[in-house]
Every structure is written in structure tokens, then in C-alpha cells.
Q: What sequence folds into this?
């Protein structure tokens, strides 16, 4: 069993910054990757960023590639999402997700797909005002 807890969301002005954190606990010994997704009202959940836990290789959505940075602290089983130059269109609930090594043997074929992730946090609200 794995539990993911997000924190760091809030209300910011356009152009501002936030850093989200995702702490994983439980059966994390087989952690393959952690990712961030977001969902705005009336929209489908969309991929934001992901990081391979061992190698640190990262993936980004085109819409955030030059503004957001995903990172991790292996010792703390914690992933971070540094969000700079925030725009109103970034407003959404942000979810942390984890992919397990044994659960997703085909992870690398589609790391941006939410179907590759086995565990999800409760989400944290990010609101960007213009």
C-alpha cells in the first residue's frame, strides 16, 4: 500500500511562483516514477511532468516545459514541482501520482499517460489570478 500527500498549493498572482511537494509513504521500495497531473473544471486530467526515480530523467508537457521543474529527494521519497511564471491557465487541482516498477512493465512506452500510474494523492488547488 502507498500513500501520497500533496502540499504547497494556493492562490498567486500571474507571474508568481509556487512549489508543490508530494510525500510518499508505505510500500515505496518499487518506486519507478512519480508524476504530476492537473485537472481544471470541465477539463480532462492532463499530464504536467514526471521523473524517473532512479535516473532522474524528466518528462514535461509542452505547455509547462520552460516554466516548471520537477525534482525528487530519494532519501525522503518526496517529489517536488517548482512552478514559475504562473499563468491563469495553470489554475487547476494538481495531483501527484506514483508508478510502481512491477506494476508497469511498459511504463516507458507512455510515461505521460495517467493509466501508467497506480497511486494518487488527493490533490492540491492552485489558483492563478490575472
A:
Amino acid at each position: 500500500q502507498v500513500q501520497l500527500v500533496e502540499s504547497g498549493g494556493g492562490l498567486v498572482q500571474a507571474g508568481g511562483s509556487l512549489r508543490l511537494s508530494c510525500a510518499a509513504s508505505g510500500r515505496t521500495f518499487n518506486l519507478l516514477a512519480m508524476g504530476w497531473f492537473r485537472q481544471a473544471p470541465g477539463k480532462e486530467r492532463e499530464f504536467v511532468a514526471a521523473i524517473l526515480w532512479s535516473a532522474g530523467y524528466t518528462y514535461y508537457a509542452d505547455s509547462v516545459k520552460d516554466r516548471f521543474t520537477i525534482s525528487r529527494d530519494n532519501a525522503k521519497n518526496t517529489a517536488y514541482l517548482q512552478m514559475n511564471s504562473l499563468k491563469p491557465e495553470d489554475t487547476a487541482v494538481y495531483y501527484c501520482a506514483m508508478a510502481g516498477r512491477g506494476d508497469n512493465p511498459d511504463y516507458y512506452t507512455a510515461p505521460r499517460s495517467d493509466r501508467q500510474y497506480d497511486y494518487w494523492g488527493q490533490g492540491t488547488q492552485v489558483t492563478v489570478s490575472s
Summary: The first strand starts at residue 2 and ends at 7. The chain has a mean pLDDT of 95.
